[in-house]
Each structure stands twice: as structure tokens, then as C-alpha cells.
Amino acid sequence: MMKVMSPFDYDHRPVPPTIGADRRADAPLGPRPGGGGSEPASAPPPVGAGRAEEVDPALHPPLDEVLLEVRSMSMWYGQKQALHDVSLRIPPKRITAFIGPSGCGKSTLLRCVNRLNDLVDGARIEGDILFEGRSIHGPDVEVNALRKRIGMVFQKSNPFPKSIYENVAYGARIQGIGKRDALDQIVERSLRRAALWDEVKDRLRESALGMSGGQQQRLCIARAIAVEPDVILLDEPCSALDPIATARIEELMIELKKRYTLVIVTHNMQQASRVSDFTAFLYLGRLIEYRETDKLFVNPIKKQTEDYITGRFG
Ligand code: ADP
User: How many CA atoms within 13 Å lie on the side-chain side of 84?
Assistant: First the structure.
């Protein structure tokens, strides 16, 4: 049985009415078939109980504005719990980094933000994520529309086996934009914003698969930008790239935050400290510390954070 979440105890705004609205029997991430609606053996204790003691406001940065709000998010793959009661708020037009050792739940948390985990068999969540104050699991939320506003760039660049032009135009075509002038404009604007236009403007009709790895990753960013998202999620976007290509993507991310909200997963602490404004450190599926990046790296509050950033484990 699912429950309505309590508000954060450090945030006294009322709970929006959509919280928990996804907890219908037909919700895409409802109990696994055969579960009979009962909680599995690894089900957590009731969320909300004792939260005033559990949430340490010192570990959450003060924010003027909040775009995304993760509330008491727990997530299971079958019986395996990958996230434990994670709560954090993400501001607009900033870069927020999720760091932590491999397997600590960074990508899982990122994928929850645009409901990519809906596609995983046996996945189950508790808690909620609010985007502009509304549940992303609400009954009125159309997942494709959500993913248009919250785009994703993956670890391994994944251009379609089409031309550079068609890769970028793809999303716009799906939205029904067919006029050549409109598409040309979208393609040029997106490639410019992804710092790729000058490199490819004379070969837009060539296959995207002939580009370098760094160019392909910027093409994937251009493809995400082309549908005018608000948020771009980047899952280890540089892990397959050489240092020069990595530096270009990092510069690009800093440029992109003027228009977009970026959330990046990285196992590269130097990268998080170079590009991000806020950093969340996760360990074993739990949020350990979430603060302004300079504070977290210079003066961590939690011993686990200090041990991780000083290389004692990970
Ligand atoms: P990170 O991004 O920090 O490396 P992940 O979010 O990928 O961590 O994984 C967190 C945990 O969830 C790991 O133990 C991983 O093995 C598990 N996991 C991730 N994806 C799946 C999946 N599709 N099915 C089952 N377990 C998964």
C-alpha cells in the first residue's frame, strides 16, 4: 500500500495535491506483478516518521529558487534497494553534480528524474519528484512530454545512423515540425548552442557516425537542446572522451547553464569541482552530503564525504 508523503520538515510549504497521485494500481512503477500489493521483504519503514531528526538542514544548500525537488525517494530493482530515502532540491540554471563511488545510485537517481526507470522491469519507487512544484508521476503527466522538458545525454554518445542534420532535426520532426525553414533554424540554433556549428556546418548531410567521440557527444547535446528542454541530465558525459574533448564539453556545460538547468552524474571529482555549482555525494544509495560545490570539497561536514574526496575509498 502506498502512502501520501509528508512535506520536508525543513521546508514548510504545503504538500502539492499530486504527491502520491501516482500510487494508483495502474501506476507504471507500481508493485511488481505477483506482489499482490503487499510490500516486499526489503520495504522501508514508513517514510516521513521522524524526519525532523533525519534531515540536517546544514547538509542542504540554501536556494533562492527550486526547479526540481526529490522527496524521500527510494528505489528498488526487484529486491535490491538502490536508493534510500533521498531528498534534495535542484535550482534552475545551475549545474548540480551527483558524485560517489561506482554503484552508489547516481545514475539511478538521475534516471528517476525523467522517469527512465519506468522502462526497467521490476523497478519500484517510493517518494516523489516535483518538477516546477508538480509531481512527475501525476496522472496528468505525459511521459514523452516530460522527457521533452527534461532531456537526457548518456555516457556513451548514441547518434542515430543518420546525417548530422537529421540527428538534430529528429525531435522537431516528431513534434510535427516539417517545414524546411523551421527545421533549418532549429538545427543551426541547436548546433550553435552545442558549440558544434562551425565544425559541421559544411557537412550537415554527412553521417553522424563519422564524427569524433567528442563531436558525437556534443551532437547528442544538440539533439537534446533541439526540443527546447528546461533541464538536461548528463550521465557521465565525458567518461569515454580524451582530455581535450572533455574540456570542450565542460566549457559547453558552463555556457549552457545560462539557459538550462544541468544535472550531471560524474565519478570524476575534479570535473564536479570544475563545473558544478552544487554537489551531492551519494554512498550506498544514500545522500550523505549536498552543498555548494566549493564548500563540499573544501570543508566537508561528513566524515564519509571527506574520506571519499580525499581518496580514502571509491
Ligand atoms: P552509479 O551510477 O552510482 O554507478 P547505479 O545507479 O548505476 O550506480 O547503480 C546503483 C545500484 O543499482 C547498483 O548496485 C547497480 O548494480 C544496481 N542497478 C542499476 N541498474 C540496475 C538494473 N537495471 N537492474 C538491476 N540493478 C541495477
Answer: 14
